[in-house]
Amino acid sequence: MAEPAERMRAMRERRRSRGLREVRLLVPDSRQTSVRLRVAREVARLDRSVEEEALAWTEAVSEFDDPDAAAPDATR
Questions:
Q1: Helix H or strand E segment including 61
Q2: How far apart are CA 59 and CA 53, in angstroms?
Q3: What radius of gyration, in Å, describes the C-alpha atoms of the chain?
Q4: What is the C-alpha separation between 10 and 5, in angstroms, rounded?
Q5: I want to staple 15 with a disulfide (CB 3.0 to 4.6 A). Which of 20, 21, 34, 54 is the partner?
Q6: What is the Cα–Cα distance from 5 to 11, expressed in whole angstroms?
Q7: How close are the terminal C-alpha atoms of the chain, in Å?
Q8: Residue partners of 22: CB distance under 8 A and separation at least 6
Q9: Does residue 75 have a pLDDT over 80?
C-alpha cells in the first residue's frame, strides 16, 4: 500500500484533473468553553433592530424564498 503522503498527492491530482481544488477552512472550536463564552458575549451585544433589518433584507433579496421566482430554464 502507498504511503499516506503519496495517497494524498494522488487524491489531490485526481481532484485537480476534475477541476477541483482543496480549500482549508479554520473556524473557532465551539467545544471550548472560552470560545462559547466569547460567542455568548458577542451575541448579547447585538442590536436586535439591526439584526432584524439585516434578516429582512436577506429575505427580500433571496430567490429561494420567492414562490413567484421563475425556475431556471433547463433547456438553455
A1: helix 48-61
A2: 10
A3: 22
A4: 9
A5: 20
A6: 10
A7: 46
A8: 12, 15
A9: no
The three three-digit cell numbers of residue 5, written as one number: 503522503
Question: Whole-angstrom Cα distance, residue 26 to residue 12?
Answer: 19
Cα–Cα dist 30/18, whole Å: 34
- Residue 76 is which amino acid? R
61-70 CB burial, b ≥16 within 10 A, e <16: eeeeeeeeee
pTM score? 0.49
Q: What is each CA distance from 51 to 38, 61, 63, 65, in whole angstroms?
A: 19, 16, 20, 19
For 18-44, write each residue's pLDDT tens digit. 999 889 999 999 999 999 999 999 999
